[in-house]
């Protein structure tokens, strides 16, 4: 005979000895016990089967920034989290050397949305949500490893909203974003007291979402996910009032051993005089370049 669980089931039943088997429900971990004997103030009783009900230990989700490239750009806080991980869900561009910091029993899943992947093989955002919830309910210590900083163009808010929807808890560990690291590693400071008192950061992935009249007025622009649309971006900035002689640089594979910088002007990028490489890159536009 096995007793079912309800919301009114007791949290604990007397004192117990040997476990027989375990099973779980949505809210409880239940352990089946075979005997109940006298302990301290307990009455003399004997039960063939009882159930000890206790709340299941929930998992933990930690969003961690992997930095702009190689392992050396990780923060110490990120390293400590990775060493504790039981499950890691990592983005496509994360350096695979970073994953070697995890213990040998850690489960690892690439969940990045690589552009070159087909629709059939690309991981959907809802799949990431499902994985986070699945392992959280199993009580796992989950690291959601995102390139750069988790909070910058990483769909962090969507994943947090889903965690909140099932009552989960999470923590955030910042990382070094390529938005700031790439220009600096190429020798470009993003601010200057005369030439760059303001900074605009945006993506170049979907140009229909951008206000080029407003962008053209910005002193310094940083685009991420923009290399495929760079020629059109340059042309539309010129059309909306930005000087065609405005300097513009692309930093490819920032923070990696194969980092490369290409410097030019908006006119050169718009006319395709400078060849665009279809690989990860950060674009900086302004006199500061």
TrEMBL record:
Keywords: Methyltransferase, Porphyrin biosynthesis, S-adenosyl-L-methionine, Transferase
Keyword Cell cycle annotated: no
InterPro entries on file: 4pyrrol_Mease (IPR000878), 4pyrrol_Methylase_sf (IPR035996), 4pyrrole_Mease_sub1 (IPR014777), 4pyrrole_Mease_sub2 (IPR014776), CobA/CysG_C (IPR006366), Siro_Cobalamin_biosynth (IPR050161)
Domain Tetrapyrrole methylase: 61-268
Domain of life: Eukaryota
GO MF annotation terms: uroporphyrin-III C-methyltransferase activity
Enzyme Commission (EC) number: 2.1.1.107
Alphabetical GO biological process terms: methylation; siroheme biosynthetic process
Top-level enzyme category: transferase
Annotated protein name in UniProt: uroporphyrinogen-III C-methyltransferase
Source organism: Galdieria sulphuraria
């Amino acid at each position: 005979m096995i007793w079912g669980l309800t919301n009114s089931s007791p949290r604990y039943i007397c004192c117990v000895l040997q476990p027989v088997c375990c099973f779980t429900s949505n809210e409880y971990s239940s352990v089946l016990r075979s005997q109940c004997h006298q302990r301290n103030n307990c009455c003399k009783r004997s039960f063939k089967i009882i159930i000890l009900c206790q709340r299941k230990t929930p998992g933990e989700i930690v969003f961690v920034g992997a930095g702009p490239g190689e392992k050396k750009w990780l923060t110490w806080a990120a390293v400590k989290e990775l060493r504790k991980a039981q499950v890691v869900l990592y983005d496509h561009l994360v350096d695979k050397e970073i994953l070697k910091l995890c213990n040998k029993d850690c489960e690892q899943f690439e969940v990045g949305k690589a552009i070159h992947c087909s629709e059939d093989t690309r991981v959907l955002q809802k799949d990431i949500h499902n994985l986070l919830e699945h392992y959280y309910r199993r009580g796992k210590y989950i690291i959601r490893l995102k390139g750069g900083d988790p909070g910058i163009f990483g769909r962090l808010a969507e994943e947090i909203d889903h965690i909140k929807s099932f009552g989960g808890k999470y923590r955030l560990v910042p990382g070094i974003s390529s938005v700031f690291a790439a220009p600096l590693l190429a020798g470009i400071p993003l601010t200057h007291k005369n030439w760059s008192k303001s900074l605009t950061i945006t993506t170049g992935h979907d140009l229909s979402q951008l206000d080029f009249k407003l962008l053209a007025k910005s002193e310094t622009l940083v685009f991420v996910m923009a290399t495929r649309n760079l020629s059109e971006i340059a042309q539309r900035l010129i059309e909306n009032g930005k000087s065609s002689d405005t300097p513009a640089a692309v930093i490819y594979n920032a923070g990696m051993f194969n980092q490369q910088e290409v410097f030019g002007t908006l006119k050169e990028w718009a006319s395709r005089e400078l060849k665009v490489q279809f690989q990860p890159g950060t674009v900086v536009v302004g006199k500061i370049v």
